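User: Teach me something about this protein's shape.
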Amino acid sequence: MKIFTRNLLSLFFAAVITYIIGTIIGTILEFRSIPAKIPLANYIETIAFNIKGQPLYLVVISIGFSIAFPIAAKLRKSFKNIAAIGYPLAGATAIGIALGLMYLQFETVPISGGRSAFGFIMQLIAGSLGGFTFSKLHKPLN
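Assistant: First, the predicted structure itself:
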């Protein structure tokens, strides 16, 4: 039971890390697309507002990770040569699939920082950092 709890907390922490990094990146990219000089205080205030105001994205990330990480664990057993990149790759894949599904559903990406190709890649990097975080915190079940 302790291992399960630790892994659940690791998954949640990885999702929070991805959420915060993805939100920060998304906010910065949105501000950078505005052709005006924006004070640093506005960046900080908007980032804090977005982190507090987009909990549904955190839920989407958590669901994606709860699907992707067990699959990565199974694949790591079969393919030892990808063990080091398994969880970061799973994290990036989960985010990519989530953003793709959002696009299919809404015909846009509700996560504004993921709408451009560069923003999409940055969201994938945030997902891979979440996967890396999970790989360092979790304890394998066997």
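Now, about its shape. The helical segments are 2-32, 40-53, 55-78, 86-106, 117-137. The first helix runs from residue 2 to 32. If you'd like, I can walk through any region in more detail.
User: That's plenty for now, thanks!
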